[in-house]
Amino acid sequence: MNSLFMQTLMSYLHIIGVAVYLGGSIIMEFVVGPAQKAIPPAQAQVMGKKTADRFLIFVWSALGLILLSGILRLFAIGQEDLLFGRYLWDSDKGRTLLAMVVLWCVLVVNGSIITFVLRPKLAGRTGSGVSAAQVQAHQQDQINAAQWVERLTRIDLGVALVVALLGSALQYGGLQALWQF
């Protein structure tokens, strides 16, 4: 395959991944979240579960696409040396890429916490034969989990915006490009 074709394809896929992640996060924060607050709690819980189930598929797919297309893009443009050794630490492009990778890891960790720790707490139900105190404690756990999901998704939105800014700066040489504007 032509190197220019691979560069274009990987750039396109990378941008699609970022757009899906960032666009989805914006929609969840500014459209779905407020809509949930405007409807009764039982309906909001169902709406939240259904939208989050679908959104998580897009989130994890986008994060995987961003990683894979980003690595392949570096190989396609002949800058795979930025991934290894001294270039990662000694060049402005390398440090910018390192910052992006670290922030991508923050997104993965937050996504894992939301997916595997907090969402099961939100979905859990109390069984029969439990006391009123146990039901109340369970409901409080669900409220706390929902608050943490909200906090983490807001953090993720901010991190994703910073990563997109760093990615734009990387096109122009790295972090120093931000200060030259």
Task: Provide the descriptors you would attach to this structure in a database record.
181 residues, mainly alpha, 6 helices, elongated
Instruction: Write down the overall mean pLDDT.
Output: 87
Note the gap between the termini: 37 Å
Radius of gyration: 20 Å
β-strand number? 0
Strand content: under 5%
What number of structural domains do the residues give? 1
Structural class: mainly alpha
Helix fraction bin: over 70%
Characterize the largest beta sheet: strand count, sense, and whether it forms a barrel.
none
Put simply, the count of helices is 6
> Would you list the SSEs in sequence order as H and E?
HHHHHH
Global morphology: elongated
Poorly predicted runs of 5 or more residues: none
Description:
The chain is mainly alpha-helical. The protein has helices spanning 3-37, 41-76, 86-90, 92-123, 132-171, 175-179.
Give the helix/strand layout:
Elements lengths: L2 H35 L3 H36 L9 H5 L1 H32 L8 H40 L3 H5 L2
Task: Give a nutshell description of this structure.
By secondary structure, this protein is mostly helical. It is 85% helix and 0% strand.
